[in-house]
Design a protein that fits this description.
Elements lengths: L1 E5 L2 H9 L8 E3 L9 E2 L1 H4 L9 H7 L4 E3 L3 H19 L3 E5 L2 E4 L5 H4 L2 H16 L3 E5 L3 H11 L4 E3 L5 H5 L12 H9 L5 H5 L3 H8 L2 H11 L15 E14 H22 L1 E12 L4 E12 L2 H15 L10 E18 L9 H9 L6 H19 L9
Helix pairs in contact: 4-6, 11-12, 13-14
InterPro entries: DNA/RNA_pol_sf, DNA_pol_Y-fam_lit_finger_sf, DNA_pol_Y-fam_little_finger, DNA_polymerase-Y, DNApol_IV, Rev_trsase/Diguanyl_cyclase, UmuC
Cofactor: Mg(2+)
Organism: Bifidobacterium merycicum
């Protein structure tokens, strides 16, 4: 098994397309109420980490370069790496996030000779083609491979022989085991367990007493002995795609809320087209000043992948959720909104999904000289903007409301 983890992926990609940023502290995440999505290693030296409030990051390093998240760009490069590099070795690839994945290379060893040769080739190809680095962990199972790649960071490779899996894992702190968070760590520490080596000295009955969960105890016992029976699962079924944004200030402005809905629809539609999906169900999410939230969904008559089709539905859902008339216009929202988001689900492959034209489309097509429809022209225009955004960033061009 190989676990490949990109090094400071978002920040590294920004440096790749803006070489003048090389060597500078780069932070992904802008706005006084946003959080840090990623930080370059230069920024991490100042104590900046993911999920930290961006305002705090600015206090720690006022000279850092702060950039907005460009998820369409990051996902596009991620797909290219998975397809062009990982799948060139084997089809046994499991992508677990935009910047990491597992590979079962047992069937590729006859051609490649050794897993180390595969890992070295992947690191070279990723760096030469995409100008970012990655770290590779090689082991007999997923657990040990992931811990190995973490310890190889940044830009390294670590192979753990199967016979030394338990020894390697038992050198690690408790938090290196997936599933052990701050709460469980405190609980185990109260039992005198402060390292994976301590964990390995307990049997499952003792671990059940300590955790109160037989299933959790079994997982910890397996992990502490370097064992993991999970297999690489190549098929990853995507269930939904979403985009949401915390506003700079809480607002009761219908205009501001609708503007953010449009931006989120653009992001979602762009992701749908890039991934080759159509969506049938649309959901609007609102979070209020007391941090409570509400959602409302609608299943469409036919699947779509265009913001021009999603946005009118989202506006109707927004107004219906707040008990406002459909044609609210500039009416103030009845309560302040902190976050606005859109997600789509009931996804299907574009290539294999039949889309029945609406009656309006049929009538318009009949009356049109070139047999085109407004919805088709808008969808084509959005697809053309995808190319602009992929080259110049997701904020480079957009439709007005």
């Amino acid at each position: 098994m190989l676990h490949i983890d990109m090094d400071a992926f978002y920040a590294s990609l920004e440096v790749a397309r803006h070489p003048e940023l090389r060597g500078k502290p780069v932070v992904i995440g802008t706005g006084p109420r946003s959080v840090v999505s990623a930080a370059s290693y230069e920024a991490r030296r100042y104590g900046i980490n993911s999920a930290m409030p961006s305002a705090r990051a600015r206090q720690l390093c006022p000279t850092a370069v702060f950039l907005p998240v460009d998820m369409a760009y990051y996902c596009g490069v991620s797909r290219a790496i998975m397809h062009d590099v990982f799948h060139a070795v084997t089809d046994r690839v499991e992508q677990v996030s935009v910047d990491e994945g597992y590979m079962d290379v047992s069937g590729a060893l006859l051609r490649w000779g050794s897993p180390s040769a595969i890992g070295a080739w992947i690191r070279r190809e990723v760096e030469s083609r995409f100008h970012v680095t990655c770290s590779v962990g090689i082991a007999a199972n997923k657990l040990v491979a992931k811990i190995a790649s973490t310890n190889a960071k940044p830009n390294g490779m670590l192979l753990i022989p199967k016979a030394r899996s338990a020894e390697f894992v038992q050198m690690m702190p408790l938090r290196s085991i997936p599933g052990i968070g701050p709460s469980l760590e405190r609980h185990l520490t109260a039992w005198g367990v402060t390292s994976v080596a301590d964990l390995a000295r307990l049997d499952e009955a003792q671990l059940t007493q300590a955790t109160g969960s037989p299933a959790g105890a079994h997982h910890l016992w397996m992990a502490s002995h370097g064992l993991d029976d999970r297999t690489v699962t190549p098929t990853h079924v995507e269930k939904s795609i979403g985009s949401e944004e915390t506003l700079l200030q809480d607002t009761t402005s219908d205009k501001i809320a609708c503007r953010q809905l449009r931006l989120s629809c653009d992001d979602v539609a762009c992701s749908l087209r890039a991934r080759g999906f159509l969506a049938r169900t649309v959901t609007v999410k609102l979070r209020f000043t007391d941090l409570s939230y509400r959602t409302r969904s609608r299943t469409l008559d036919r699947p779509v992948d265009a913001a021009s089709a999603l946005y009118p539905v989202c506006v109707e859902l927004l107004h219906a959720m707040l008990g406002m008339p459909t044609d609210a216009g500039t009416t103030a929202l009845p309560r302040p909104v902190r976050l606005v988001g859109v997600s789509v689900s009931s996804l299907s492959d574009t290539a294999s999904t039949a889309v029945q034209p609406s009656l309006d489309d049929v009538l318009e097509e009949t009356d049109s000289a070139d047999e085109s429809t407004t919805s088709h022209r808008l969808r084509t225009a959005e697809a053309a903007l995808d190319a602009v955004r992929s080259k110049y960033g997701d904020k480079a061009a957009s439709f007005g409301i």
